[in-house]
Design goal:
Layout: H1 2-30, H2 34-40, H3 42-57, H4 63-92, H5 97-127, H6 138-167
Helix pairs in contact: 1-2, 1-4, 2-4, 2-6, 3-4, 3-6, 4-5, 4-6, 5-6
């Protein structure tokens, strides 16, 4: 139990360090602190799906599941980047913010869903424990499947709303 507590502490630190590193790279790419923060708001959305996936599958939060959470962060952030970048391209081209957001969700829906569904398809045999020894990493696959499904669907709704709220001028 003590070893698990120590390993869990290290994993949480690794996740935090990974999120910070991704944020700093995004700040450099977008030359802004606001847009990367909006993109990173997708990370908490994955935990809804991870918890639901583990609960439905009857699995516990374990070291492989924590590895799955770290793995999942990249895909979730990528989906947000695809949306925000497209919105920014459209608004810089002169399109109104609301129209750019609607078009972004409409146009980028297919690539985002293809990414999510390919992740699910790739992890499904592992989650279903279809091979000898796969039961050890089944929680990893279960966490990824639940997290990517929930985060993808929520990202398509929540991230554009957060972007719109963050982009509106403040009334003084």
């Amino acid at each position: 139990q003590r070893d698990f507590q120590e390993a869990r502490s290290r994993m949480v630190k690794a996740l935090a360090l990974g999120i910070l590193a991704v944020y700093l790279v995004l700040v450099a790419q977008f030359r802004s602190f606001k847009h990367p923060l909006t993109i990173m708001m997708a990370v908490p959305l994955q935990f809804i799906g991870v918890a639901a996936g583990l609960l439905v599958a009857g699995k516990y939060l374990s070291m492989p599941a924590m590895l799955g959470i770290i793995l999942l962060t990249g895909t979730v952030v990528n989906n947000s980047i695809i949306l925000i970048d497209y919105i920014l391209q459209r608004t810089e081209g002169g399109m109104k913010l609301e129209s750019a957001i609607l078009e972004s969700v409409s146009v980028r829906y297919r690539p985002i869903m293809m990414t999510a569904l390919s992740d699910v398809a790739g992890m499904l045999p592992l989650a279903m424990e279809m091979a000898v020894g796969s039961e050890r990493f089944s929680p990893l696959a279960t966490a990824v499947i639940g997290g990517v499904l929930a985060a993808t669907l929520l990202t398509l709704v929540v991230i554009p709303v957060i972007f719109m709220l963050a982009s509106k001028p403040q009334n003084s």
